[in-house]
């Protein structure tokens, strides 16, 4: 089993989900007492969030690239950036590595394509919904991406930063997210990408009437396949936990 490098802390709530799903997946694949061989570097999210707000993506990329190199030095054979939003600096992180960085957009696009969908809704932080780094990755795979309108983007973003990254899960927020998804479906979305790692703490496939594509779970599945030398296998279209 190859060693998986987890670059997390953005937020630690989602990194905990990554770690749990990673170990559960390896146990399911290999059985017995098997668990994932991994190293974790968890950053101080306050510093990254400050750079996000300031729009200083270059500095954020420098910091994460240095941390990714530290994971490589610690023995990681591949690196997983445990966040959707910070894939905005994926190119900067990749440039400093001699080992692969598994892009969250690739595993997500593979799953959507495998499900036979062509038009997909995207939920995430405001940065993820408004910047092209994830939408373009999906578009390059032949998918049409639909994002919420201004008011819904603000709602989705606020719930992430004021609730989910703090471990707060509210039923009223779950209901509000369902309404956002319904509006995306009314605009032709055949499914929805849960494009923020913390969103999977709030909604899942049982909460909406269209297929969901949880990027964390799909990213983990890709990492496990890579670590076990199963790079050609595709992840399932949806993950139900």
Structure commentary:
- A four-stranded parallel β-sheet has the order 5-4-6-7, with helices on both faces. Strands 2-1-3 form a three-stranded parallel β-sheet, sandwiched between helices.
- Strand 1, helix 1 and strand 2 (38-42) form a beta-alpha-beta unit.
- It is of the alpha/beta class.
- It is globular.
- The two termini are 24 Å apart.
- The chain contains ten helices and seven strands.
- The chain has helices at residues 12-30, 45-54, 57-73, 90-95, 104-114, 126-130, 132-140, 150-162, 171-186, 215-227, and strands spanning 4-8, 38-42, 78-81, 119-123, 144-146, 191-194, 212-214.
Strand-residue proportion: 5-15%
Helical stretch tally: 10
Low-confidence stretches: 232-241
| pLDDT averaged over residues | 93
What's the end-to-end separation, in Å? 24 Å
Task: Describe the main β-sheet briefly.
Answer: 4 strands, parallel
Helix % is 40-55%
Strand order of the largest sheet: 5-4-6-7
Gyration radius (Cα, Å) is: 17 Å
Order of helices and strands: EHEHHEHHEHHEHHEEH
Computed structural class:
alpha/beta
How does the overall form come out from the CA principal axes? globular
Using DSSP, what is the number of strands? 7
Main features:
12% strand, three-stranded parallel sheet, alpha/beta, 10 helices, disordered C terminus
Short description:
By secondary structure, the protein is α/β, with parallel strands linked by helices.
């Amino acid at each position: 089993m190859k060693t998986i490098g987890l670059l997390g802390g953005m937020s630690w709530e989602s990194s905990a989900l990554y770690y749990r799903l990673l170990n559960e997946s390896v146990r399911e694949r290999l059985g017995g007492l098997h668990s994932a061989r991994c190293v974790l570097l968890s950053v101080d999210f306050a510093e990254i969030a400050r750079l996000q707000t300031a729009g200083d993506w270059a500095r954020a990329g420098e910091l994460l690239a240095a941390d990714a190199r530290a994971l490589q030095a610690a023995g990681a054979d591949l690196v997983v950036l445990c966040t959707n939003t910070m894939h905005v600096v994926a190119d900067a992180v990749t440039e400093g590595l001699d080992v692969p960085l598994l892009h969250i957009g690739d595993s997500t696009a593979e799953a959507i394509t495998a499900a036979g969908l062509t038009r997909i809704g995207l939920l995430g932080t405001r940065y993820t919904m408004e910047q092209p780094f994830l939408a373009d990755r999906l578009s390059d795979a032949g998918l049409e991406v639909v994002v919420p309108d201004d008011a819904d983007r603000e709602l989705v973003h606020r719930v992430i930063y004021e609730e989910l990254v703090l471990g707060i899960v509210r039923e009223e927020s779950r209901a509000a997210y369902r309404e956002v998804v319904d509006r995306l479906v009314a605009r032709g979305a055949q499914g929805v990408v849960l494009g923020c790692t913390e969103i999977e703490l709030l909604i899942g496939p049982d909460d909406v009437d269209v297929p969901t594509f949880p990027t964390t779970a799909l990213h983990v599945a890709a990492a496990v396949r890579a670590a076990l030398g199963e790079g050609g296998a595709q992840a399932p279209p949806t993950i139900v936990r």
